């Protein structure tokens, strides 16, 4: 738009506009379609000047409306002009040109020609333009002949196509910036703009850094923008689009036309690099890219072949454009002229950084802005990006040797999420006894055993067993293995170990003998408690107490009259030892102290509303630290613990148990809860999920008629460290904020706080941190790191989980930063599975992945044979000798080699899809077999139900939790 102040000669202006359209053929070219495709037709100048009165509305508003009107370039000239009159002495000329006919660099020759023509026409004569040496059509023909075709390897375009194919190979197809909304299926292109303040002193600093590094100001700003995008996206591989003038010949300088091209600038940004290092990388990238910029971007897209979708721009979703200074004001006879750009509210990209050099009259700084997609970002989010970009540019141009990952973008230094004060610490026996205030209240209902124990009975029986343990030398720091399924016996034994001052180690008797032997040997357990039926399957040299042995029952009965001495426990003594999956192929033991137990128990009691009248479910496997949650949920409030039979995994059986036992409070993993119908469970006051990601669908099913909470926490930090507020259907599912006695921090790879809503790794600190990994000081030092933000000697635990804060500063869980996964609530190191599989003689190497999520999550193992073929049945048996059932892959796929990316990393996208179906089999016979096979097909999502009569549900990809759905599906059919 051009502001015209003074006595305007309107007829002269209209004539001048027509003169310019006549001068530049491209402004009077249409592109009609035909059988052979669109072609150009040059017409006579016919565009006339439109007029509008702007005395009651802002000219900028009218100009924006005029600019937003579309073009039909098959029949209409690609240019139109509007003259707005605010007063007789103030006019605004708006010229809108379709991008097919002009680029940003066309504005300068266009303005020059319009003003030249106006001066001539206002003097009563025709303009005397310097003749154009070429027209745009001539350039197009020359370009086509000079550059050749991308299909000709020896041509310019052929060589450039090869360059871009290699340069962009393996590049991320999408940059994941912290957005306020999910990306829509189709871009609306609705955009907003926010200013980036880069005054004169900043420009001086930018130019100084450029000069001392043989770079250009554009390169410096590109490097700074790449640092911002890297920090926001937590990625080191950044692709940014940039326009290229495409006017490499002097004869094109005065020509209006679309010469600009677009290149994708792919840069590696190491957060540990200095800004000078990043700038050197950017300089090399930019020079190479600009040397290969003749190829049209559309052909680059064809060559690179990214996934094409309507929800984003291909190859890159961010853009940077830099424009040199050019005159914006002119003095004509009787007229003051000022040009200013109309910025339409359109965003072709997620984020675009635009920089224009200012003239001396304008302040000699940079006029800069960020254009953002309103589909993704709110205004305040874009404004925060602008502030971060200003900070990066100011900081790194002042200190080019500074490390780019150390620039403080959080704005307030450390952005810790503090929990409430922990309150008084208690040891586990003190905590358990606090809940036993009423000795006549029911403490345990063991459904499988049809047994009920009061708190008084539980106290007396565990006292007696504790005497037996003390007599055998059990004291603080000594580990006692509990090889029992969840049952009253297990709870009594746990209380007894705690009262004796020992450390309890849960051992699932159903685990493979090799895994149990490792746990017992690695832990150095001095004693074990079990029942006679399990002794034969318990390897190793551990001495075992058999609860049902006559000698022991006699010993216990004799001890009932004794008074148990207080165990000499300290808060930093370990309370329990739990083994979790380890990447080396062997599980690792996590030693958790008493220090954080009371705070966690108090948090649960208050948050979930547990009272002495509550009935809390015990459903978790004893080898899962959620069993500690259940223990403290009930006994921390003097409530009744209802122990589910070991055979109940979910589905109808779990629903019946919740209903028949009038459960009021339950912790259930999302995968198991997804198999249960919430109907008819109105007495269930609170359900807590955890151990895996909770889906919005699960919340919509379960939250409406009760309070529903999402608990999060690693084994290494006393079960849980954050708990959400009561979840609401339709809202974002969060893991909430820190519980009592816990501080949480979202940090980047250099342990700096990330800005709000930016993805980072979650670190936690507080009294609840475990002592570490038993017998593994190196791993302990790697995961329990010094807290640079806390008092000297303080520690924090690196969870390995990626999170971001929402606007309310609740945490949203996003997944793992490493190769750990969660399947059915169990934390699994896929490397442990790979190591076990690769130890089989017929396997050269193996890589495991998880497909699906929630209840449908399944482990798939890809194996490379050492020689010949791999016997999958034998390999499955081999896995079963070392791995628990939840870690045995549901499918095995034989591959020739593990696919890798150009960077040498596993290329997960190149792994073949698993074949869940059996290769062949007998067709079902009779109504029962037909019903079962149909249920197989439904639950396992198999294509055909006619060949599975002799197939194993588990070999077809099923797991024990999916079996609960299978039972329900069979019942529907029989």
Automatic annotation (TrEMBL):
It comes from Rhodococcus erythropolis. CDD domains: LCL_NRPS-like. GO terms for biological process: amino acid activation for nonribosomal peptide biosynthetic process; lipid biosynthetic process; secondary metabolite biosynthetic process. Pfam families: AMP-binding, AMP-binding_C, Condensation, PP-binding. Residues 923-974 form the Carrier domain. PANTHER family: FATTY ACID SYNTHASE (PTHR45527:SF1), NONRIBOSOMAL PEPTIDE SYNTHETASE (PTHR45527). GO terms for molecular function: catalytic activity; phosphopantetheine binding. The lineage of its organism: Bacteria, Bacillati, Actinomycetota, Actinomycetes, Mycobacteriales. GO terms for cellular component: cytoplasm. InterPro entries: AA_adenyl_dom, AB_hydrolase_fold, ACP-like_sf, AMP-bd_C, AMP-bd_C_sf, AMP-binding_CS, AMP-dep_synth/lig_dom, CAT-like_dom_sf. This is Non-ribosomal peptide synthetase. Transmembrane segments: none annotated. Its cofactor is pantetheine 4'-phosphate. Keywords: Phosphopantetheine, Phosphoprotein.
